[in-house]
Amino acid sequence: MRVQDILRANNAKLVVISPDVSIRQAAAMIADEQVGMLLVVDARGVLVGLLSERDIVRFIAARGNDALASGVSAAMAEIGLIVSPEDPVADVMRQMANQRARHLPVVSEHKLVGVISIGDILNSRLAEKDQEAAVLRDIARGSLVAAA
Question: Which pairs with CB-CB distance under 8 Å and at least 24 residues apart come from 123-132?
Answer without folding.
Answer: 124/1, 124/5, 124/6, 124/9, 124/89, 125/89, 125/93, 128/1
